Structure formats: C-alpha cells, structure tokens
Amino acid sequence: MLDQIARQMIEFYKDLVTQRMMDQRILEELYNFKNVIEELTRELCLVRAHDMKLTKEAEKAHKDLAQALLDAEKNARVVEEYHDLYTLQRGRMESDIKQLMAERDLWSSATYELALKVIEKNRVILAKRLYLNEKGWNKYTKHFIILLSTKDTADLALLQKLTLKWRSSMNKFKNEVEQNEESTREKLQTIMDSLTKWQEFLRNDGKDISSLNKENTFESVIADFNQWQKVLTEDKDKYTGYLLVSKYDSLKIIKHLQENWTDIGFGILNRHKSMEGDMPSELQYMQEIVKTIGRLYKEFEIRINGDNGISKILSSLVSSLDFCSFKLVNGLQFPDMLHEEWERLNGKVNEMKSQLDTSINIIGTVPQYMDVDSGPVLQAQIFNMIQQWLLKISNEINNGNIELQRHMDELHISMIQWMVSLLILMVPDFTDQNTLPNLREESAEKHNLGVAKLELDAIALARRLAQYSSYLNSCCKGMVTAMALNKAGHLEKNPAKELHELNEMKKECYGWITTCSHLLSGIKGKKVTLLTREEKEHLFGEEDFLKELIEPEIDSLFTFGEEGEESMKDNFQMQKEEEKPSTSKEEEKLIRVIEKDENIYSKPLFEANIFSSWRESAKQGTLAPKYLEAMAIIERTQEKLLGISTSRSSAGGNEFYCSCRHHPHPQWRWRKWNMCRWGIGC
Q1: H or E, element range at 603
Q2: Distance of CA 399 to the CA centre of its chain
Q3: How confident is the model at residue 583 (pLDDT cuts 50, 70, 90)?
Q4: Contact 356, 232 (CB under 8 A)
Q5: What average pLDDT score do residues 372-394 get?
Q6: CA nearest to 392, candidates 286, 521, 273, 525
C-alpha cells in the first residue's frame, strides 16, 4: 500500500505539473488573444478614422464637383457669349474687309483711268501687266509654300511612325538574340558544373573500375557526356542552317525599314537646302546615325553567326566530348587503362573547362568592338540620336517654312514699292508759266536721279526674285513630280496640274523681270538688261524653259542688228511724232505693229531698210546660209505685203488688219485693240 501510495503521489505530482503547464499555456494564449483583440481594436479605430476621413474627402469632392459643374455651366455660357460676340465681330470685320476691297478696286480702277490720262497708254498697259505678273507670282508662291509645309508635316509624321516601328523591331530582334544567348550560357554553365563534379570522381576513383558501383557511375558519366554532346550540337546548329537564315531575314527586314525612313528624311532635308544650295546640317547628323546603325548591324551579324568565337568553341567542345566519351567507353570495356591515357583524359577535361569558361565570358559580346560602346549601350545611344534628329528636323522644317514666307513677303513689298515708284516717275511733272526755271531744272535732275535709282533697285530686285523663284522651284520640283506620277498612276484627272503651276510661277517671275526691262528701256530710251543670259541660266537652270523664254528675245535682237538698240526709243516716241504735222506733200502712211513688249505701235509703212545689217553681213560672208534663205523669203513676203497694203490703202483709206498669222484672208477691219475671232490678242 505504501508503494502504491508513493506511485499515486508521483503520478498526481506529474498531473499537477502538467496541469500547471497547461494553465500557463492557457494563460499565454489568453494574453496573446488579449493582445490580438487590442491590436484589432486599434486597427478598427484606425479604419474608422480613415473611413471618416475618406467620407469627409468624398463629401468635399462632391461639393467641389458640384461647384465645378456650376463653374462649367457659367463658363459655357460665357464661351457661348464670347462665340456670339466673335461671330458678330467677324461679320463686322468681313463686311469691313469687303468694303475695303471694294474701295481698293475703286481706287485701283480710278488710278488706272487717271494714269491713262497722264501717261502713255502702252506704258500703262506694261505697268498693269507688271502688276498682274506680281499678283500671279505671289499666288503661286503662296500655294507652293503651303504645299511644301503640308508635305513636310505628312512626311515628318510618317518618319516618326517608321522610326518607332524600326525601334520596336530592333528591340524584338535584340530580345530574341539575347534569349538564345542566355539559354546557351545557362547550358554551358550547367555543363561546366557537372564536368567539375565528374572530374573529381575521375581523378580520385575513376582509375580503378573493379566494383559494380564504380561501373554504374562510369555509365552515368558516359551518359552525361553524350547528353552534353547532343545539347552542344543543337546549340552549334543555331549558328548555321535555316535558323541562321531566318535571323538574317529578320535583320534584312529591319534594314529595309531603316532605309525607308532614311530616304524620307533625305527627301525632307533635300527640300530645305539653303539659298546657296547647301544641305542642312541635319544631313550630316543623319549620316552619322546611319554609320552607327551599320556598326550595330555588324555586331548583330557577328553575334548571330558566331564569328565572335562561340561557334569555334562549341565545335571544339563537341569534338572533345566525343573524344572523352570514346575514352571512357574504352576504359569501361578495358579496365586496365594506362596511366598516360588517364592523364590525357584529365588534360582534355581541363581544356574543356577552360573553353567553357571562355565561351561563357564571350557569349553575347563582340571582341572586335570591346574598346567602344557596343550592344545595348550602342543601341540606346542610337535611339537617343534618332530622337534628337527628329527634333532637329522638326525645327528645320518650321524655320525653313517661316524663312520662305518671310522672303516672299519682303519680295512682295519690294515689288509693290518699285511699281509705285515707277508710276510716280512716269507721271509728268505739272508745270505752268509761273514755275521758275530753276525749279524746272531741279525737277529734271530729280527725274534723272529717280530713273537711275529705279534701275538699280530693279536690277537688285530682279536678281533676288529670280534667286528666290529658282530656290523655291528646286525645293518643290521633286515633290511635284512625284505627285504627278502618283496621280497618273491612280488615273486622276489633270495629274500634271501642280507641275504646270510650278512652271507658271517661273513664267510669272520672268514676265515681271522682262516687263521691268521694257519699262525701264522706254523711260531711258535705250535697252536695259536686268539679268544676263549667264545669270538666267544659273538661276533658272532648265534649258527648255530658258529656250522658251530667252530665245525669242535673242532672235529679235539678231534680226534687227544694230537698229535694235534704238528701236525701243523710237517706239515710245512714235506717238508724239504722229501728233506733229506732216511736212511732206503727201500724207505719210502708217501701220500698226506689235513690238517685243506685245504693245501696238505706229510705224511708217515705207520705213528704212531693216535688213541693212543682214546685207552687210551677207556681203562680208559672215552670215549663215540658212539666214540668207530666210532673208530672201522675208524680202519677197515684204514686197507682197507692201503691194497689198498699197492697193488696200488706195481703195479703202486708213485701215489695218489682224497680224496674228491665223487669218487666211484679211477681210476683217479692226479699229481698236481687240481679240480676233480665233481668241488671240491682235
């Protein structure tokens, strides 16, 4: 009983200790639970505070939104009122502009009528033609500046789109190459780690292949070597065959895309040369970008075809693995392998480890470009250069179009000022009997100075105008030709409209210069040339255009010979001579002729022989045979015309006929400047 009591006391004590431990554990759990409750309570308070804060913020945002809606409604009403006010003001301004234009037309017509009363009619006609040439030139110039700006904006948007597409293609191609290289690197690292482990086995326990365990281990080593050989052979095939061709095709597509946006950029820059014909500095920057991109292409080619050394190393590793597998199989079949064979096998393994380490380091790199930026750094640099280049091209387009508009406005104002000065100079000074003689002399001297200044201004303005027109033509020529070909390819109506208008702009420019020359020649009484033939060829450049515009002038000068210099003076004085009374017994017969300035002048019917210079050249033997034949034909035609004119004058009085060369019979009588029934000014 005492022993049982002792055992029960011990068990009771154990139960008591256990109960105390359980109570302590329960107390700890209760304490932890209390702490959790307190933590949750604190979090609940924080959540409630945050919820109250969010509620207040939501209420405030709701009030702000309601206020914003009220403000928006007020602003909408204000904008609507402003729009109504703008519409009203615009209507008033349009009516004012119409009134000003009507007044301008009225004053223009009044000025023209007044000019006809105080200035010789032919000079007024030339001045009007000068004004029309300037107006036509200004219209065509504005049109092509707007057309050039629109084309530049469209090409810049396309350029940005193509460069962005090229950038995404380059990134995709780079990621594919890097994924392949990373996969190869991981395989090489795994092979190197396993090879290091098996090398320890071959160095320590591999020489004695007597037990069954070692034989199984050798078989595992041989299986791993064969597996590595297979993996490396697959990686080696990536640098040859259809996989390499596929990568080259992708790179070729990227190159073609880059050539597209390069051509567009060159087209934009070619339209924005300087007045001297120099290309913008952005072209050199673009060439630098293309050169850098070419280096990036070369790096990718080296990396994808394995010319950085990885292809040779993989081939060597496959051969070494094949050699080691062969030796291990022999060692498994013939356990008594010589010590020298094991040393040779160990050396081959060390060689493979060195090659694996080298291949891991050089994969993804190009040893030829280790001294300069390459890879991702070079690609990021190229992307940054392209972005800067696009910004520069955008600035060049804006600045170039602003400069074109500014030069056109300056030329427009200068041409208007010159025409106004010309009209003021052509109006005769009013003098009466009360005018002092000294004032008359001063007026004549002032007139001569004005003519000299007008001539100098005309020479400078003609050169500026021709240079600007030639520059604008060079900027728009390629664009307009491409547009014409595109319209012709789509079978649109009038595909060469823009090309025709570009030629019309040059004709208006040349017409303005020619009319200035005629007016100055009439004022000075001798021929005035604003541009030499060499300057015209240099500025206009197109032989067909020059032949069309200049050859008639050269032929007329050759035709009249030495008398051509004085013909202009005689023409402008002919009207005054008509008003003088005839001193001859028989009234002098006159005819109406169209001169080089396309105006009508009166000339004696039986004037001096105009072929005297030709006859002198013919007598001296310096005239070409074709001109001798032409002179004979002209003389016979002249005799017939003189006979017909004499008979008509004796029969019908003072009449003159259309000389447009389109009338088969002179049966229509003309008594004023008009249009013949063929629609040609006669």
Answers
A1: strand 600-604
A2: 13
A3: very low
A4: no
A5: 85
A6: 286
Q: What token pair was written down for 142?
A: 């504005």
Nearest to 507 by CA among 533, 480, 544, 482: 544
DSSP single-letter state for residue 435: S
For the segment 260-286, the average pLDDT, to the nearest whole number, is: 87
d(CA 127, CA 336): 119
Cα 64 from chain centroid (whole Å): 49
Instruction: Say how far apart CA 510 and CA 506 lie, in whole Å.
Output: 6
pLDDT per residue as tens digits for the range 510-551: 888 888 888 888 777 778 888 777 777 766 665 544 454 544
- Per the DSSP assignment, residues forming a β-bridge with 101 are none
Residue 451 has pLDDT above 50, yes or no: yes
One-letter amino acid of 295:
R
Q: How many CA atoms lie within 13 A of 624 on its CB side?
A: 4
Q: How far apart are CA 455 and CA 379, in angstroms?
A: 60
- Cβ count within 10 A of residue 330: 12
For residues 651 and 647, give the distance between their C-alpha atoms in angstroms, rounded to a whole number.
6
Buried b (16+ CB within 10 A) or exposed e, 98-128: eeeeeeeeeeeeeeeeebeeeebebbbbbbe
Distance CA 12, CA 462 (A): 129
The DSSP bridge partners found for residue 601 are 593
